[in-house]
User: What shape does this take?
Amino acid sequence: MENSSNTLSNCPNLEHLRLFCLDQIVNLNVSASSSLQLKHLDIFQCKSLESLEFCAPKLVTFKYFGNLIRLSIGSLPLLAELDIGASHFHQAKFVLAPFSSYLSQIETLKLHVRLP
Assistant: This one.
């Protein structure tokens, strides 16, 4: 699954992608063409994941629960829901930072942070 963009280009009607406990994924690139219908991207506890790069112009919700990763995002004009889970506040803040320019359009923001 190293080259996820090629995989996704074969699924133009895919609207919801959920990755759960896939420890084989290290670097994930989800670059959606304008024809891809991806609206929901959920990533949960993929422990080997080190970086995530995505551009999905039709994305409405993004959910991430996991380790601290390098995160690079492209244009997300429809993003309305952001759901972040982290083991501590610093980690949540780090994951939120790339979305700072989209906070004014976010309708639902959920932070799940374990308190010490």
Observations:
- The chain has two helices and eight strands.
- Residues 1-5 have pLDDT under 50 and may be disordered.
- The longest strand covers residues 81-86.
- The CA atoms of residues 19 and 43 lie 5 Å apart.
